[in-house]
Design brief:
Elements (H helix, E strand, L loop, with lengths): L1 E2 L5 H10 L5 H12 L13 H10 E2 L4 E7 L5 E6 L5 E8 L5 E4 L3 E3 L8 H5 L1 E4 L2 H17 L6 E4 L9 H13 L8 E5 L3 H10 L4 E5 L5 H7 L8 H15 L3 E7 L7 H10 L5 E7 L13 H13 L4 E3 L13 H20 L3
Parallel strand pairs: 1-2, 6-9, 9-10, 10-11, 11-12, 12-13, 13-14
Antiparallel strand pairs: 3-4, 4-5, 5-6, 7-8
Helix pairs in contact: 1-2, 5-6, 7-9, 10-11
The structure holds S-adenosyl-L-homocysteine and iron/sulfur cluster.
Amino acid sequence: MIDLYTLDKPALETLLAVWDEPRFRADQLWNWLYDRRVASFAEMTNLPIRLRQRLEAETQLGSLVLEDEQSSHDGTVKRLYSLHDGQFIEAVLMEYDDDRRTACISTQAGCAMGCVFCATGQMGFARNLTADEIFEQAMLYARDLAARGDRLSNVVLMGMGEPFHNYDNAIHAVRRLMSDLELGARHITVSTVGLVPMIRRFADEGLQVKLAISLHAATDEERGALLPVNRKYPLRELISACRYYTDKSGRRISFEWTLIQGENDTPEQAEKLGQLLRGLNCHVNVIPLNPTTGYGGHPSAQGRIQQFINILGEHGIPATVRIRRGIDIDAGCGQLKSKVLKRRAAHAASLEDTLPE
Ligand code: SAH
Ligand code: SF4
């Protein structure tokens, strides 16, 4: 089977040429796939029935298999997909009142970076996703939204995995989001744990895509304890790469700060962060910790969060609290996979119990 979602326009043209179809059929098919975003060949009504039948028989739309889906009362929809080799990945769609429809997508099955509070980090690394597997997660949400007259507006590479540990595929997927799904670069965000050489490479790429850095601590000692990668790329090198990015791109950089009670939410940490980021064109997103089974920390209390933000404000650094979306559906990436696998293991165990010896 040929997966049509993996073909670029010239490849689609070649396929239809080989099938002896007139040239304009490729334009029509492309239009159904990426402009109209239909989910079946039956809907492609201006294609002759014999062509639709051939497409049905010899091609497919995507390769991800939906294994589980959970919807939150706040409108967040989280999905677990299996890949052709049995790996699992997660993707989330967040719908906001201001019409933003944001897909959060994965770049790897698992992650090698081992951040202690992250459910994906806790499960270890399985493999890189292909550019097509990354792109398809956004494509499938775009398709569902189109079916109800809505439109995917933003994509964040903040699901499972470290995008800059799978740099080429992640960037290729980002380019397809821009060309095939016509998302503006400013509506796409790549988040990295801080792989310094890749931040510089990304700056040189010249894309207008937004960059977010997962910071979480303002001293090497504390950051190294939460994010092992800090031992390889300490803060001095990281901030220098961030400055390179803001200078080169002329764009503001975002920092992610997961607030953990008693760990990194103290006034001292806020002061140190204020000093660390002085003079940098940046914004800090503060996110209360989403508790995971493999880490004992707790989210910070409301008062602490506000105090943290106020101190940053005194240093002239804009900071906002990101609302935790889908908290009732394990929307922190990696959490749904853990839960479904546990449920399946329990199911398998109970089946075994009922089998005769
Ligand atoms: N690997 C990339 C992108 C995926 S993680 C990165 O680390 O930036 C996306 C964001 O979620 C990161 O800022 C990460 O630190 C944060 N995160 C991971 N686990 C979390 C948790 N349990 N609670 C809150 N934020 C978490
Ligand atoms: Fe990987 Fe990001 Fe999780 Fe760290 S926070 S383990 S880099 S996915």
